[in-house]
Structures
1.
Amino acid sequence: MNFQVKFKNDYGEDCLKTVRNLERTGKKLARHQNHLRFNLHCKHHDVTPVSLKLSSTVKGNKANSILKRAERQLLNVRISQTIQKIDYLNKEKGRLDSCVEQKLPGELVEEVRSRVNRSQIWEHGVTKERQINKFGRLLQKNQEQTSRSLPSECIHKWVKNCSDRLLRDPELSVLVKGLNFAATDRHVPVVEIVTQTELACRKIPDREAHLLRSKVSNLLNKPKKKQSNLSKEEQEALKSLRQDKNIVILPADKGRLTVVLNKEDYKQKCSELLRDNNTYLRLGKRDPTSSYKNELKAVLQRFQEEVGNTQHHIKNSQQFAEVIKQARVEEDEELRSYDVTALFTSVPVDKAVDVILQRLKEDQTLSERTTLKPEQLADLLRVCLNCTYFVYDGIFYKQIHGAAMGSPVSPIVCNLYLEHLEQRALRTAPHPPLWWYRYVDDTHTKLKKTYADEFTDHLNSLDPDIKFTFEKEENRSLAFLDTLTTVQEDGSLRVTIYRKPTHTDQYLNFQSEHPLEHKLSVVRTLFHRAETVITDPQDKQKEKLHITQALKTCGYPTWAIEKATAPKPPSPSDTTQNNASRGKNRGIVVLPYVKGVSEGLRRIFTSHGIKTCFRPANTLRNILVAPKDKTPKEQKCGVIYHIKCQGQNIRGPCTETYIGETERSLKTRFLEHKRPSSKTSEVSQHIHIESPGHSVSLDKVEILDTEPDFFARGIKEAIYIRALQPSLNRDGGRHRLPATYNPLLTESRVLST
């Protein structure tokens, strides 16, 4: 018999009506909770629901601003009313539940509550799915409208097409987001997350490590539906741009401009640069790495037996503004900015090393930091600075003059040499500048007008390799770093923000798959610069309005700007909490950011005293920008590889496989596997003893992952062995991976990352 009919016969129609009202109230509550979440998401992403869209026959920016403000106020009212409705439904549900409890016996009350709860959960799931889909469509439509509504001057300012390819609107829509824009990845990077979790577990007790693994595994096993931050047309455009081999996409040297070039034009320009025999030497197709390796080894075998400390050094524009805000410039004085032409390729390496050697000899504390002698350090530095070879279009070249751009040691060496040159120039000048502030190769100076040209000639006479160019003040204003210094009528200085002609006002797009704190830090940095660098209050206000408009063009909603710029009230418990967290700190993990997953991972790691940082995983730069020669597969080092037997059995192709890892080149390790005399290689045992006549090919070896760190590489090897179950591996790898991850490490999940 039907439950409701039986219930009516046993307890009467009034009691059945109360139970039905309780069930309906539960369903209403589920719908309103999802409705509230939908509206809060709309507010968070600055999206207006269709039902609240307003229109007017009055056109113009001011009318649109009024409509937008009204729509936001209506959304706030709807959120407030929904909260009130949820409170009312909770009270009503409680009242009806009490009525049921009074009218029915205890065991039946529990059965009714169970049925009502199941009904409410089902309604919640259905409504949630519907609201998620609705919000996804709304957000995608809003993104498309935002892309289309970008002013044409922004598109031309942010994207420069110098190729023969005609960029369609969806392609422009992708490129205009900026190369630091991170596209949503459809797959959760399980391998990276598990690897970082295992690295963190090395620093905590075994029992706590087991708990941490369980929490991470449970979180990753929960299915998450991810809404892409690119429309379908934009996704197709991104794929098309990536597959086009006739173009090269690069960031401009200055500003945040994305440049599209014909590949042939790019190669021709590179060839012209490399034909400069005074700077580059063609080495041919032979890789000189081994010769440099031997040279460095020889230097090290003989070992068996500071920057920016001068008063003229400027750390940043904030320090510069602080230093000169009380300064004055008289009528017979002028401002000049000096800059070194092609600093990195101009610095004489031998002279720079001699300067650094002398500094090391004068350093009384050197013996406290290292056991190496100054001469030994100088020899090592010389080897590093002379290791300037690179490969382009399959040919090796060597930079024969100056320090290599991109080398981490080059900025330090150039800075130290300029520091030496600076001290020499100021010490020997007949009429030195009244002030001299330097940031790397840019300087801001005040000189007497009579001696300005004399000092310029003096600078350029110090070293034939280093040539200084200069800029004079224009209309009593001079740019330095990102500041503009203007001399007032009374001689005082006014400092404002300076933007180069190549500046594009493009910042991290708010729809990018970056953590919210990354986006808010963009806002804080810009407003902090305006507050600390600019000296005049009116200029500060003007700059803040400019920043706000630029950020809104990049998709930043008003709430994000307000949240980032709101003053943070001091909390008396901050010090206690910081001390507690420092005491419990157990290291740091760096995870690829996945919206909706990374936030949960952070809570888990933080509860165990492990600090969590996020990095964007799928930026347009990684996807589209690839101008350099790719390293051949066999030369790659620090890889996890997958070897498949190429032999034939009676039943068909051999299915034996092996997974391993190596810090050396793949070719070196592969040849060891193939060697008949190898007794430790499972691959060698298979092809030479167990299945004679079978073979393996380097061309068929698949690189599963790349990892330079020794411990992390061992963890990744164990992950791939667990997921792919290679038949030739005798064990699970050198890292003992716990069974906690077994439900998570499926072949489809691991290979998709």
2.
Amino acid sequence: MQRLKSVFRHTAINTALSLALLGLLISSFNALQPVDRLVYDSMLRLWPRPATDGLVIIEIDERSLKELGRWPWSRRTHAKLLDTLTQLNAAAIGLDIIFAEPENADPVADRLLAEAIRHNGKVVLPVLPEITGLRKEGIKPTLPLKQFIETAAGLGHVDIELDSDGLVRSIFLEAGFDNRKWRSFASVLLQVHHEDHTLKWQGESRPNTHPSRSNLWWRNQRVLIPFADNSEFQRISYLDILQEKTTDLSLENKIVLVGASAAGLATRFPTPLSGQSEPMNGIELHAQVLNSGLQGFNLIQLSKPLENLLTFILLFATLISSRIYNNKPLIPLLAGMISAIATSASLFYFALSWFSPVAVLTVLILSFPALNWQSMKHIGRTLLFERQRNSATLAAIGDAIIITDSEGRIEFLNPNAEILTGFTLQEASHRHINTVLIGLSTDQAKFWSPSLLLKSDKPVSTCYLKAPNGNEYTIRLSCNPIDMPIHETKQYMFVLSDITETVKMSRRWKYLATHDKLTGLPNRIKLEELIDRNIADEKDNNCFAICFIGFDDLKTIDETLSLSAEDFLISAIAKRLKTCIRIGDSIGRWSNDEFIIIFNRTDDKERIAILAQEIISVLTLPYPYLQDIYSLLPRMGISLYPHDGETAKQLLTKADAARNSVRKHNTPAFCFYSSSKNTPIPNIDQVLELSSVDQRVDNLSPDDQQKLEAIRLRNQELKKTIQSAKSSSKLKRLLSSPFKKT
């Protein structure tokens, strides 16, 4: 009860309220907006959305410009395109081309285009806000010609707003000029496709803040864009549609976007995913918005009042709870940080709302030194006035305490300081602190003098201490002046906090982030880093090979196995692979049943083929587990640097493609990547011979040896059957599943 009462002391509540209000101010005024955006972009990259198949992009690309001539083209051309799309039964067409001026050279072309729009009945045209002056008030809408407006199914604005850092993260579902209002281009297309869709799609309200002013372009209903992989959208050249080269194309119940993608013609916008791909053009941004609308991903920014309330609650609850653990404020502060991150991630992934945890994390990080500093300062004052109680109090402190005079001569050591320094209080008394802490060093200096903190503006330093007992510690050394009565000699308190375990924990976290927990092998992140490091190596004759290994039959076996048996098989595969690689090679786990081997400093296919054969021979050995024996079918694809690619993504993609070329053969095999469609694979007889080679069975039980013998007999029978088979279809049927649980 006494500890609970201390929580509600005025000082504790005032401190918690002050820090919580500080976080509220940071959140309200977006003081850390760049950091907020960095966290948002990182979370967005970790959550890529799938691309829908109900959307087709028709690009005005370089090839189309080369064939059809310089831009702009005759509107007869666009009319012909619309007639073709009408014949293909497109559900809705977004024509992202501005027709604001009549075609004086061919007036009939305007009439033909208007007829094509009317005949289709599902064409949406853009409204473009253009800057006519230097100020925002100079933005005015540019609309299509009247005859096009009358025949179109709808108009949608194509206004795109950049954030202050120059990236596009959101779009406004509504925009207008004075009293006129238009829905966004993508929103109108969705309404044409599904009449009730627009009513279900709402964003963050941001109404016109100057309703009394005229000639003002305004925006409303802001929604965040949950970006998908831009390369997954179906794309077709404008020229191919015009020349009817896509005879097998079906646009039934699909939305079609027509716009420019050629360099110099299309404006490009950087996005949070621009670090992984090129900036997006306008038609691609509309495709991203349509993709989120078609799949129901309505990602919005949490309202500012709700965000402020959530920030205040998280901070106040954490800071109040820290008073219960007054001596260990790190525990509630860490719990508060984890809670803020978990709340943000949960709202982002499940509620499709973005809540920034930056304000909470910043205040909690800043509050830790303050809470720790106040605690140590209070202890120092108590030690000064209570000499008889000093020894007991300081002995109970987990940190090492050294008190010196203004010249650095030692006057007191607590027991922890005696252990760290190897000196007793009597031995260290009146010695200089530099001679007692002689084993100190830093990252910059092999030998470091703690007396430098006496006159330093930064009274805290992280350093390393080698104790007389041979142990090495990472410590946080702080030096604080002690307020003394008048005419008393000034004293300083050195506090040595052992943060060795904290540093080890940090390194452990880094290791877990880059290694697979089950096998201890590098994971996907670490493998990509190793490949990029090899590519960046500027040494002469820089070459290496990527070996992509997969076990398709492991997925089938997993359905009948327990988790412990599945973990056993994966661990056994990893152990066998470790015995197969050379010194200097790297191995890692790519996914559940996929592994990667990096053969460094070689592009000799013959040598690599020998290594691959050795690996297959090891991996095809039976896997005894309890009362059963399992056999697996490894398939390997190999790509070479720099022959097959110059980036990690290219090398991995081509190695996986090589592996896919042997997956149709139900045998263990490997293959090098080749641009040829018919990539050769190892001979079937050779693979069966490899899988039936004599194995060491000394350590197997009699039952396991009988099962292993049954597998060998089955392989011999299969080989004889293959030699006598007269057709490839019969061979494929016989080899449908030669390696299964016996």
3.
Amino acid sequence: MAWCVNDPNGNWSGSPALPEPLEEEVEKFRRKLKYFFMNPCDKYKARQRKPWKLILQILKIAVVTIQLVSFGLSNQMVVQFKEENLMTFRHLFLKNFSESSANTYAVYTQHDVYTHIAYTVEQFLKLPSLTVANHEYEKQGEVSAPLSLCQQFYRNASISPANESFHIDSQVDEGDDVCHGQLLTRPPLDLTFCWFLSECLLVYPPHPSSRPAEHTLNFTLHFQRLLAVAVRFTLKAINLETVQYHELPDCYVFNITISFDNKPHSGRIVIELDNDVQIYECRDGTVTGASPRNMYIMVLFDVVVILILLLSFFLCMRSLKAGVLLQSEYTAFFSSRYSKRVSFSDRMEFISGWYILIIISDVLTITGSLLKIIIQLKAVASYDLCSILLGTGTMLVWIGVLRYMGYLKKYNILIITLRAAFPNVIRFSCCAAMIYLGYCFCGWIVLGPYHSKFRTLNVVSESLFSLINGDDMFSTFKKMQQKSYVVWLFSRVYLYTFVSLFIYMVLSLFITLITDTYDTIKHQRLDGEPVSDLQAFIMQCKDPPESGRFSVNETRCLMSCSHRACGSDDNTD
């Protein structure tokens, strides 16, 4: 069989002459390939089929964006309510708290530790008369849930810095739920406080009908072996902001933990207030003019979105399957007709990465929509996971718009440039990452003790990435401590070489990779050179889309015809 080669003009040489019926079958196959790679408008001209997939994608972009905005506005109210309650709890239960000291809130003396703990307990007992919101204690049957005060410490410890000696049992002890030798299931009749047999204490709120009495905490902290003190209690509240939008409000449970961290034993005990929030549907409640109709409408809208996404998923999967089948047909044709192996790049032309991108976005958005429906029905409160799924899915949907912009001539060259430059960019980034990681480890171990921006590997990476983008350069140089002249001098060499290497060399080479790829593709377009054997083969089909020769009957499989062509060639030879 003769060898087949395409010249720069797209002409094929060296192929044996085919009988007219077989040549007609080859032309049909060319038209089939050309139709497969047409844009939706040309396909409409060729077969008068409306571009349903394009219409569906445009509709999907609209409904997915509306769904995301709706969820974002709802989530914004939830996040705002949680953040405002967190700030409220800090002002209520932390003594002399100010927003400016949120990251440096700590105590330094034993007296301050006892004072702050006593203040928290006192504020907890007085909560009904202090709060301006609708915060209330959690109920355990007929009584209110207590506040628990526990300390965590080493089992045994004897430390003498003056003698440079220590003896520590690393086993950590913590309080249990035993009060006076019995499991605590209800508050004592005459006591507000109840000691645990270990180092824990329960503080029960006073009965609503009684006046809160003055109590003095009588407990001892083992500072020499103390690791942490934890104050835990639970409050409930209702978010009434949704009433303005004629929606039923949600009930919130706040599991509050105030921790006094003494693990470093540095003389500074850091105080932090953490708030774990759970959201539930209120068991009983009515609002005049409000009904769950809006919620049901949103659930119905989410179901419609899921149906659209499922249809999009099915159509893209069908297109991928058609591409795989046509790839096999094209590979068999080239193997039998020209005895030529199809290159990997030509085979991948049949597998559209845009369809894979759309399928991934559909799966993410469908999962996020189902989770959103469950959240709206108050079964779960996984707002963060739902946000990640919907946000990533919507981002990929909008990125998928580039596929249709690529059909425009002026935009097409930009998209092809990005696709062609991507492998080189990945390889170059891997090489640059080796240098970057080297600087990260070096900066962390050398500059970490002397610079706040190099204390952890994560912070080091963020600081160096900011330097690459020219951000915060002066402060990075300025904040370097001068306790060690050798380290200070090393920091100058380190920072100057990093900035020079990455800004003047690495980034410049990175940009050059993309511009060279753009120039290469641009010259190929101007010179009319075929990029691949597949495109050269298709270019021989001169039939325009509106010629009427792209009917369904014209696109029969060529496998049997290819075998007949091989047999004919053998007989000819």
4.
Amino acid sequence: MASPLKQQQLINSLHTGFIDKDNISLEKYRPRLLLNNHKQGKKVLSSIINELENCDEFFFSVAFITYSGVLVLLNTLKELESKGVRGKIVASQYLNFTDPTALRKLLEFENIELRMVVHEDLHSKGYIFKKDDEYNLIVGSSNLTQNALSKNKEWNIKVSSTDKGSLIEETLKEFEQTFHNSVEVNEQWLEQYDLIYRKNKENSERVTKGELGLFIAQSPEAEYKVNHDLRPKISPNKMQVKALGGIEKVRERGENKALLISATGTGKTYVYTHTIYELHKRYGLNKFIIAVPSLAIKAGTAQFLRDEYVKRHFSDVCGYGTEIEVGVLEAPKNKKKGRSYFPSVVSDFVKGSCQNTKKIYVLLVNMQLLVVRSNGMLSRDDYDYGVEGFYRPLDAIRATNPVVIIDEPHRFSRDQKAFKVIVDEIKPQCIIRFGATFPETTSGRGKNKITVKDYQNLLYDLNACEAFNQNLIKGVTKEHFEPVSKREEKVKITSITTKDSVTFQYKKRDESTKTFTLKTGDSLSIINEAFEGITIHAIGKSTVEFSNGIQKSSGEELDVDIYMTSYQEQMIRLALERHFETEKANFCGRNFKIKTLALFFIDDISSYRPNEGR
């Protein structure tokens, strides 16, 4: 039972909500009207997510559930599953509007019990959240759809109660009764409902109730004009259509190698994903390896393949009716002594059954892991456990007879180790390379030396100029900056004596060069007053660190006019100036606002964030 203090806080909040708005009380217990108002930044969704993040248990009773409604809560539901927070959701089959895809997604959560009311019309829209001895109840007009939670004109009331309150007791009793009288949602039930749902979308005629209480009603889209998916339809562009046609021709000729050239940004990732689905549909292939050159590309590819909208596009819009299961191979982070376990991602890939026509298995790997050495993750054979009789991962992968897709092939030249592992160790039935640039091969010597691009079975070629002409990519403008003061003064580090001194040369146009030798603690203003406040903090074997945190090596120069600001820092400053100029033009005085983004590319994560966690 709630403590006397908590009871008094609740009483005061109810007094504020129902009797005197000027009464002082805790806001979290006050009755509230929850609305969607984009001008005020209000969403019913925000309140639902906040309650979920702080509850011990939750109960939803709604008439309709759409896939987009589940997606907006997906990350929150995953977090609750990891914390072991359980929930119950009951929905209605009224008008057959609830999306079976949404129900399938909810079935993936082990902490959620899912049921459907099929023998009567359920119109409730209620959300109950339990935390210790408290309950928060949201009741109103919002179904579990993206529009209802974020966009539509909806009215919902939120009230709080202790576990002894009569209102929450009656509400929970009604929920449990409805839940008990409903049908458990499982794959067998969903298969039947899915047929009726699809048929219902194709025609609007009514039919009588069938087995399990399933029925087809008039199209709810026409009655409620609900936008089922706010995102635009995905469809292949001109390049992607032609490239897919080329791949089909190569396969028909019985070739086992092919390549596609397409300018950066034209959609190669979509093409090879579409290729995977098409090869599965036509030839029953369901084992694919995607080899990429870097961790950044691997992360981006994994995100694309796992995106729920992408999955739905290929499964439903394109009509493939199957789904890619992505396994991302990662290097072991902590090498502990003791048992040595076979890589689980490889094991799942190898065990994936070719009899399952609804699954395509994709192994995503970066080139650094495709190596053969004694302690290599894929090449060692001393694991305590194997898979399907194999103890060496490369041997197990080869046995699946996969198709290998290579992204950025200019990084996978024929003499490169990763490419040799693909050809000699994995021995795939087919290699398809997708890229904007390709490696070169050289033959002959002297005057007979010939260097050509490494093309083999070129099925499509789209250069940057043609891509621009087809409006597949945008033009790029380039800008150079000039030194701030144009004083043309520089300071060069000529030599460093370990932990002792640093020798500088001061250069200025039309003046003789001056030499300065400074020690730890000395100010650079000795060389030029522009460096006022900057001192030598430490001297190493080949580097010197200044008091502003910048490190320089022997031979490097310092720009006097910008206080040692590096070339990169000047570029960032200019980029930020241009960003705000562009943002002002894109935002002010426009009916449709355009969001402006500034992107900064780095060579490697470690060069930007060298210490993990900092």
